[in-house]
Fold:
Amino acid sequence: MKRAPDRGRGRAAAAAAGLLTVIAAALVAGCVRTAAVHYYTLGGPPAPAARPAGAPPARYTIRVAPASLPESLDRPEMVLRVSTTELGIDDDHRWAEPLRTGIARAVARGLGRELPDADAALGAVGEAPGTPDVEVTLDVQSLDARVGWGVALDVLWAARVTDGGAVRSGRARASAPAARAGGHDAVVAACSEALAAVSRQIAGGLRGAVAARGAQRERR
Structure:
């Protein structure tokens, strides 16, 4: 009869120990999952300044469709190059909008800076036939990014002048360094810088076609 309390205390102690183990495991799991998730946007060059009051409207319009991306890049997480054959998917650093949209938006902003007579913006090819004067499509071949190194970008582009006009196309390659101590912010800044360089290359290939289109509109 005297041993029953000992057995009871032993069972209670074992139950308490088990409960503490469960609580500790839950706390550890909670700590593992409390890492902050960071979201990024591609800045690109500053937006074109607003046209002064009374200034003539833009001579032509350009719409840039969301870019085509390799499947490995078409995800919300930031994808970083680890080696020549390995990519790392960073769950804690993500794009605030689909990367295909962010790239197109950055290129449109860049074209607006490089072609001051244009109204350049994000769009979708065929969304309003005949509305934009030029439709631009982007096919990203590669976007290699490394923390502490920078970004290398390779893009095929095509620009179609609507209403049966000419099609211009080309390949734009650009790279930009990232500060070694800058972390992921520096990688995103390097990506924006590379996209600005891509925009300059596309604008160089478009100038003749868009100038002719603008002159055609003015004669109407």
Q: What stands out?
A: The first helix runs from residue 4 to 32. The radius of gyration is 27 Å.
